[in-house]
Amino acid sequence: MIYSLGALVLLTPLSLLIRHKPEKYGYLPDGEANDSINNHKTAPESLQTEVDITAKQALKGSTFWHITLALTIHLIILLAVITHVMPYLSTIGFTRSYSGFIASAIPMISITGRLGSGWLGDKFDKRWVATGCFTIMGLGLLAFNYVSHEAIAMIFPFAIFFGIGWGGNTTLRAALLREYFGRSRFGSILGLTMGMLALGTIIGPLFAGWVFDNRNSYHAAWLTFACFVFIALIIVMTTPSVSNHIQSIKKQ
Asked: What is the domain extent for residue 23?
């Protein structure tokens, strides 16, 4: 009830501040003012050459599937950990209040990853930023696997690394799609991606629960997810560059 009332009070008026395309207000997408833009009547050269790929073209290319599959793995791992972090810590002897504190600390720490990956993605190739986020996330998972009363300190690298990796790739999701596929069909392409990513939100928690039910332990699940991270790293690193991607689209 508190969350729903808060959403009504805070989010409804904030939603009224959202604006449509920046050109309508005399700005370029990156925020640079341009007086020549007025209700789309005149488009600057930078926008005329902007990436413009249809959803059909995106589905035919390998780049879309590289990005979508990597992000699906991200959500498989994320939802599994978020769903089972408190049960897991309880099974190894931590109190419910301590488990709740760790569960709430992870999304707070993810803010660092969200801000940091956005800044880095503006300065460096987003593929390598995503690779770094997956690597950090994988280190967090390995630390999570070895958390115990004897190794309680492992909870800190888990929360820090996993939180940063989670937040980083969450920010890069839209940034990667925008960079590779442009703005004109962004809604359709993002919708297709999110629809497929929904599978990850189902698979991850179910798999982790199934592992615990059959082994009475979560360790095999965390190690499996760490292997998934390695697969995601390969997928991201083998994603074509933006220039190669655009050339391949033009050849279709």
From this structure: 17-50
